[in-house]
């Protein structure tokens, strides 16, 4: 499956919407049925294409938020006010509607504990550190759910920044691997972290550079670049850090 998922020729497929539900006030989860889907690796993404009656097309990319074992494809879409695509995906799509989709795409921002174990890779003995900002947690949900389903032995942690507790996505998947920090207010009984992910938080809440972790960071461009720069300053190997960025439009998740 790994080789096919990374190397196969991409063609546009018809995806049927099974469910479109609000995950938070700003983010919707799309559940899709995709006949002919070849399977994916945790961390890969897809392209969605919308075509208007006059022939105008718009295309956006979204990380797959579901494990390969899930027969449905899950995407998380953050609604951007004034956006060209995300308001339609969150507000207009109904069960039974169809979308054009191609994928899976990407082999760089991928981690699978099952592949580590099955291939006997030395990387499988190295811990994995995930760092997410907002809806950038989407690919990590696929990684963590796959890790849980396959009984992966690789040590893994997720450091996850969300605006408020109500903005935390997929709490059922996060589990004990996850440390959450809230940046725009916390409930009175909140016992977790508050504030942005900075040098102090990264030093205290991530694997130490001496453990040689593989690091994956996903989120808005400024967030990801700050995280990467700080980790290198702390002594992490730049070649072990993989980044996935999206702009401020909210149409890339």
From TrEMBL:
Any one GO molecular function term: 2 iron, 2 sulfur cluster binding
Cited InterPro entries: Cbr1-like_FAD-bd_dom (IPR008333), FAD-bd_FR_type (IPR017927), Flavoprot_Pyr_Nucl_cyt_Rdtase (IPR001709), FNR_nucleotide-bd (IPR039261), MRET (IPR050415), OxRdtase_FAD/NAD-bd (IPR001433), Riboflavin_synthase-like_b-brl (IPR017938)
Gene3D superfamilies in alphabetical order: Nucleotide-binding domain of ferredoxin-NADP reductase (FNR) module, Translation factors
Stored Pfam families: FAD_binding_6 (PF00970), NAD_binding_1 (PF00175)
Keywords, in A-Z order: 2Fe-2S, Iron, Iron-sulfur, Metal-binding
Cofactor: FAD
Domain FAD-binding FR-type span(s) in chain numbering: 10-111
Protein name: Ferredoxin-NADP reductase
Organism of this sequence: Geodermatophilus africanus
Taxonomic classification: Bacteria, Bacillati, Actinomycetota, Actinomycetes, Geodermatophilales
């Amino acid at each position: 499956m790994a080789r096919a998922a990374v190397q196969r020729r991409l063609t546009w497929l018809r995806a049927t919407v099974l469910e479109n539900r609000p995950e938070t006030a700003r983010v919707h989860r799309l559940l899709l049925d995709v006949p002919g889907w070849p399977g994916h690796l945790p961390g890969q993404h897809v392209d969605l294409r919308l075509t208007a009656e006059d022939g105008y097309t718009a295309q956006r990319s979204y990380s797959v938020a579901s494990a390969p074992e899930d027969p449905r494809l899950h995407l998380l879409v953050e609604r951007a006010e004034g956006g060209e695509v995300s308001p339609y995906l969150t507000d207009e799509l109904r069960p039974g509607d169809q979308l054009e989709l191609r994928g899976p795409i990407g082999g760089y921002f991928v981690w699978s504990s099952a592949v580590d174990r099955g291939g006997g890779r030395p990387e499988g003995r190295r811990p994995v550190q995930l760092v997410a900002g907002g809806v950038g947690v989407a690919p990590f949900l696929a990684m963590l759910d796959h890790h849980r389903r396959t009984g992966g032995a690789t040590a893994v942690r997720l450091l996850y920044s969300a605006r408020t507790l109500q903005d935390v996505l997929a709490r059922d998947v996060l589990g004990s691997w996850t440390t959450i920090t809230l940046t725009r207010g916390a409930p009175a009984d909140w016992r977790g972290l508050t504030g942005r992910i900075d040098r102090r938080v990264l030093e205290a809440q991530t694997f130490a550079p001496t453990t040689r972790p593989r690091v994956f960071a996903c989120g808005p461009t400024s967030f990801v670049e700050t995280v990467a720069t700080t980790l290198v300053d702390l002594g992490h190997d730049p070649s072990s850090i993989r980044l996935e960025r999206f702009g401020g439009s909210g149409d890339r998740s």
